[in-house]
Design brief:
Strand order of the largest sheet: 8-9-10-11
Largest sheet: 4 strands, antiparallel
Strand content: 25-35%
Number of strands: 11
Radius of gyration: 20 Å
Shape: elongated
Order of helices and strands: EEHEEEHEEHEEEHHE
Helix content: 10-25%
Distance between the termini: 44 Å
Number of helices: 5
Length: 183
């Protein structure tokens, strides 16, 4: 694990950086602009520190995993394509969880993988179905997937990928493939 250090900003507050990045930016005059920690490049343009830490200079998005914009350590930053966030829009159905819908008095979880709709099972509560959806997202898309519970540990369970490919969900329900469009 890389050691982290706090770097003081012009207003007296601090930002958390990994040790190598601390030494990279320790002479820079850091300031807060639009709630983000920023610095000026050689040409005088304002650059956001978290994007500079990862070297992202294109249209991709850098997200803070813990939501703290003063934690610019590499383990807290995640680079996402814009298309991933486009699919993260709020749900418009009866349930606020992604991939979860009412089903015969219970809740069902489904996920679309490679264009096919995969049924993950039916569950007693919407939260259980949302957790099953999150497990399937972690197994199929890894850290780049959009989760219902982003505060959850962002690592893939060892056997989740095996369960997903074998056709059994976490709750022991049989899964089925359906090519019908999601409503």
């Amino acid at each position: 694990m890389v050691a982290t250090r706090e770097l003081r900003l012009a207003d007296g507050s601090t930002v958390l950086l990994d040790d190598p990045d601390f030494w990279r930016f320790w002479k820079s005059k850091l300031f807060v602009h639009n709630r983000h920690v920023c610095l000026r490049d050689e040409e005088g343009r304002i650059r956001r520190l978290h994007r500079e830490v990862l070297g992202v200079h294109d249209s991709r998005i850098v997200r803070f995993l813990d939501g703290n914009m003063r934690n610019c350590s590499r383990s807290n930053l995640q680079v996402l394509e814009r298309s991933v966030l486009a699919t993260a829009r709020p749900s418009q159905g009866a349930c606020s969880y992604k991939g979860v819908s009412p089903y015969r008095g219970k809740w069902q979880a489904t996920i679309r993988i490679e264009g096919k709709l995969k049924w993950l099972g039916s569950f007693a509560t919407a939260e259980e179905a949302a957790r099953a959806y999150d497990d399937a997202v972690l197994a199929s898309r890894g850290r780049t997937g959009v989760l219902n519970f982003p505060a959850r540990a962002r690592r893939r369970p060892k056997d989740a990928l095996d369960e997903l490919s074998s056709g059994r969900s976490e709750g022991g329900h049989e899964t089925q493939l359906s090519s019908s469009p999601v409503g």
